[in-house]
Amino acid sequence: MSMRIRTSALTALTATAVAAGTLLTAPAAVAAPKPVAPKFLSASQLPPHPSSSWTAGPVTEGFPEALGFCVSTEGVPSYDYRHREFRTDLDTTAVQLTVVADTAAHAKALAKHYDDLIRTCAARIEKSTPDVEAEGRDYGKLPVEEGARVRGLHTETSWGANDIALFSVGRDDRTVTVVRWAQMGSFKDAPVPAFKKTTTTAVNKLH
């Protein structure tokens, strides 16, 4: 059942620093091992395309423009973002973002912030672009690691262009991932069960 997204005030994400610990007086310190970077989806783990295989790009530093209007870094701490883009030979694309927060609490707040941005995206699109109708749908939570949620977004322009996108936000301890799948079409063209499987895989692969 579809649900028209209503505008809600976006709450700026704030971070609080917590300092705690014990001073060690050992004569020599051993450098802590560098944390293992989160792993990314492979092309074969995207929702299958009926007539074209997926191609995966390299893992790249920075925040991806391919996440579109819905998700941004505005109002959040300056973390190190990494992403990977995927494409088919036709019009279907996808992108995965990963970010490691400094604490699990901050990661939880960041995941909620991104999910709120996606949840309110349709209303913001219609407000900023009067010739575009947008509708969002909530496809529910997934029981993976610290949790994930899947949502859909359909946009239709006054000149008839139709686009459908699926988004998910998931978390494993301090690491947050956002996945977006998109192509021309409507909600009936969205591979929701396959995308849920992709999201579960994405969160499980992080660490």
Describe this entry's structure for a reader:
By secondary structure, this protein is α+β, with helices and mostly antiparallel strands. The chain is 18% helix and 29% strand. Strands 1, 2, 3, 4, 5, 6, 7 and 8 form an 8-stranded antiparallel beta sheet that branches. A hairpin with a 4-residue loop joins strand 6 (148-157) and strand 7. The radius of gyration is 18 Å and the shape is globular. The two termini are 34 Å apart.
Helices, strands, pairings?
Elements: E1 55-56, E2 60-61, E3 81-87, E4 93-100, H1 104-119, H2 121-128, E5 132-142, E6 148-157, E7 162-172, E8 175-184, H3 192-205
Antiparallel strand pairs: 1-3, 2-3, 3-4, 4-8, 5-6, 6-7, 7-8
Question: Per DSSP, what share of the residues sits in E-state strands of 2 or more residues?
Answer: 25-35%
Low-confidence stretches: 1-29
Overall form: globular
- Give the integer mean of the pLDDT values: 86
Total number of β-strand segments? 8
Rg on CA atoms, Å: 18 Å
Brief account:
The protein has three helices and eight strands; from the N terminus they run ββββααββββα. It has about 210 residues and is an alpha+beta fold. Strand 3 and strand 4 form a beta hairpin.
